[in-house]
Amino acid sequence: MAGKVRHLVTRSGRYHARLVVPKDLRGIVGKTELRTPLGGDYRQALKLLPGAVAQLQHQIAQAEQQAGAGQRQTGPSRYPLAPDQLAHSLYAQRLAFDDEIRNSPAYPAVGQIGIDDLLVQRLRDAIAGKANDAELGALVGAQIERFRAAGNLDAEPGSEAWREITRALCHAELEALARVVERDEGDFSGTPSAPIIKDAQPPEKAPEPISLKRLWTDYVTMRQQTGSMRDGGKQLGLAVEKLREFVRHDDAARLTKKDIMAWRDQLLKSLSAQTVSSKYLSTVRSVLNWAVENDRLPENVAATVRQAKPKRVKAREKGFTDAEALKILKVSRSYEPHKDETGRIRETQHMIAAKQWVPILGAFTGTRVTEITQLRKEDIRLEGDQWVARLTPDAGTIKTGEYRDVPLHPQIVQEGFIEFVENAASGPLFHHGTDPAQFDRKATQISNRLSEWLREKELVTDMRVRPTHAWRHRFKSQCIELDIQTRVYDAIQGHAGKTASENYGDVSLKAKIDAINKLPFYDLK
């Protein structure tokens, strides 16, 4: 959980330390940001800055603990401070606390408490390196853990780095005690003499966060400018949202390779290795790589994070067999909606039409099912003596982003599809959407329900076969058997050419008609 620090911000000519409170902690903190005044003198503000920043971060750490997210820091520190910066921070906190005590109405009655000479000697021994780990922990262990909770350090107890920090903090405690003695005599002009405190450098300015969500939006916009991702990246965008949810922040600059690997492992608990690799990791890798190429990020932390995919075992063809295709088409073409116990038909006319016509349209065009379910009445036209369906982005989403004309096989016409179209109301044939912006979503809903129906009716029982997509594989297999040119059936199905030469010249409507008419009729009697 990170807050964004603006180390020095001016307000009416005076300096403040400022920390933006993370959104999910604002209900606990009660504010959107925390501020601490540092005075009007820039140099003095710099001296007070480390302590002020640490105090603000400590408030965030306490809120995290209250929210249940305050487990002991084990990863890299979020707001790392050097030993001298930690010492300066503690020194400033001690003097601020001394001011607070002296400003208390009860202070005059309490009077001067005095300094423990034994404590002073213990601090001097610690600074000299004569104290063991237990003694160091007793002196400044609590302060160490408070800085740890604030994300200022990650040194493990007993380590060389930990001992260096404890000795620095002992310097701060000793210097603060010296100031307290001076103040008790009325002298408030004292300054630290230990170089580790007086020469401490202010923390470097925290880098500006880089919104992962914004990166994705800009990436999609770029892809759309080149004709890709016409759907706005709806499906792939889920990967970015899942990553943001997992790491619990939106800063792409804070992502690490360990974050991506941990996210991958979490996804594998509910998703297949194929999906994690081809959809989730691939999407995040692409957007972060784009960010690097466009100088938005210094590195792509997901570049080498992979997930092995299981080797596919092909036990059968991807498309429907002759028997499977015939079974589906017979039930589809003879489908009649059932009435309930009151005599009412609960299905919509659009869903009924989808069950009756989408399978045969898929069988003879090999097009994507959502491109069929988004067809409108105005998309069906007579071109000379040939009926043609125009698949267009105006009706929803076309993966290629370009319209294409697909001839209708004579059996589709013979079965009565044209009469169905002529009797239909204007607009979508298979869904009831009225807002063009919603056509894609409505068409997808119908497609999903159609797949469910095919499974429920046990028309598609082999789980290795996709109920509606299998028509695309079958169509291509038939075209190959009939020696139809690859360019022609790719143009019908909306597949891009595989070589540069295939992008020259257009596949004419006549070439498509000749190909479609080669497909054999199905015996649906």
TrEMBL record:
Residues 315-517 form the Tyr recombinase domain. Keywords: DNA integration, DNA recombination, DNA-binding. Pfam families: DUF6538. It comes from Ruegeria sp. PrR005. One of its GO terms (biological process) is DNA recombination. The keyword DNA-binding applies. This is Integrase. GO terms for molecular function: DNA binding. InterPro entries: DNA_brk_join_enz, DUF6538, Integrase-like_cat_sf, Integrase_catalytic, Integrase_recombinase_N, Tyrosine_recombinase_XerCD. Gene3D superfamilies: 1.10.150.130, Intergrase catalytic core. It comes from the Bacteria. The keyword DNA-binding applies.
